[in-house]
Amino acid sequence: MTSVGTRALDLIRRAGVAYRVHQYESPERHGRQRDHRPSYATEAAAALGVAPGRVLKTLAVAVDGRLVLTVVPADRALDLKRLADVVGGRRADLAEPTEAERATGYVVGGISPLGSRRPLSVVVDAAALDHDTVFVSAGRRELQVELAPSDLVRLSGARSAPISRPLAGDAAVARGADYHASMTKPTSLPFTGNDAADRLLADEPLALLIGFALDQQVTVQKAFSGPAELKRRIGHLDALRIAAMDPGDLDSVFRERPALHRFPGSMAAKIQALCATIAGDYGDDAERVWSEATSGPDLERRLLGLPGIGEMKAKSLIAVLGKRFGVRPPGYDDVAPTWPTLGDVDSAEALATYQAGKRAHKAAVRASQV
User: Fold this and answer.
1) Which of 55, 210, 357, 360 has a beta carbon 3.0–4.6 Å from 135's, enabling a disulfide?
2) What is the pTM of this model?
3) In this structure, are strands 66-73 and 56-63 parallel, antiparallel, or unpaired?
4) Is 100 strand, coil or helix?
5) Are residues 233 and 342 in the same domain?
6) What is the pLDDT of residues 226-280, one digit of tens each?
7) Residue 103: which domain range?
8) Sign of CA dihedral 275, 277, 280, 286
9) C-alpha count within 13 angstroms, C-beta hemisphere, residue 309
């Protein structure tokens, strides 16, 4: 098969990276079958007997009129809004097939992110990096090339970013059914010392995320009491409505005495950005951040994509979700923290122990820097 020649394969061979070429035959379809043809990538996965998540589809997208190639696993859907944000655009739409063919020099069904006729920006979905090797079109229909995702990113000059979402009803969601069924909900999370505030953290997913976003340069009790107090002041915790508030009005809510945070202005802006992401990317349903995660790495990526959630907060959230809510998708242990976190806190006493440990750790760090 190494004698097959396309611009994509020529580029790979010149680079000297490891690869394998796979050719297959699509099943013939007649009548109505032609109208219900699966995507080329899904068809390739079935023909080659590999998981759809390892077979990548290349989609041409017009972002503010500029053509961008996106590379997304066959079992996920391209998120156009997220793509626009990644490339700094305002509007993203799937390109016309003829436009994609002219720009790449490949025919639809055989478009490769490698070796385009014209230089094009390429974005590879971060989910593709979960695998040792992936499959992409080699520049012709029914022809796939298998290579390491890192080599794909390098040779295509791509950036990698989370630009996809689960495809409702697809194989990935089905594979996650077992862990979704094991999800539970605690009656409360004992982070504040106030029963109502603790119950809210367990009852309303957005409250939990807001609490973590506020957990910065204030005590755990102050940060996680914030969602309940915010709800009392504005009458709800609806991400869409918070995102639509006048920024000045929300700023005033945060500054009202006692202020919701040590830095009320910056935190008001951060919470509004968080709510805008939940409203826009997750249909105003914060629980979808974890309920639709298909793997541990996918869960971590989703959390890191939220404003106000950095690496350490994401790890702590992973622990809380796994230990208190039963959210343990495949690969959970690969991303779960191995150090004490709020996920270990199941009582007021455990919270006191956790905070004492944090203070001791900070004191040791300061002592070592003297």
Assistant:
1) 55
2) 0.56
3) antiparallel
4) helix
5) yes
6) 999 999 999 999 999 999 999 999 999 999 999 999 999 999 999 999 999 998 8
7) 7-167
8) negative
9) 26
